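Course exercise 7: structure representation. Students receive a sequence record and must write out the corresponding structure in token form. The form below is the worked example handed out in class, using Pentatricopeptide repeat-containing protein (119 residues). Read each field label carefully; the graders check that inputs and outputs are placed in the correct fields and that the protein name is recorded exactly as given.

STUDENT ID: A-19
EXERCISE PROTEIN: Pentatricopeptide repeat-containing protein
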Amino acid sequence: MSCLKEKIAPNKFTYPFVLKACNRIGDLNLGKSVHGLRFRFGDEVNVQNTLVRTCCCGEEGGVEFPRKVLDEMCKLDSVSWSAMIGGYVQVRRSSDAISLFRELQIEGVCPDEIIMVSV
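STUDENT ANSWER:
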């Protein structure tokens, strides 16, 4: 039986795990579809961070969608920044990673160890 049929709604903890599963099976389109269902948790930074990480791990050069998600986030934390910087590095867009690092500094965010390793 489907959870939705039983009116058991997914929550802010469910979505990150589903997105991670989409990443593990390599289905970026499914991950984007799941993102479309997350309307109730649009401001949950954990859900959005997982989406950024998941989509950055997708197809080569596919960083436009996760960057759009990052740009639309109301609140960014160090995981948000490191996920996107790491995504740029992964697809060999080093200049974009450095630009985002500079943006992070302009925003007054103190980079953590993970961000520094990525840069």
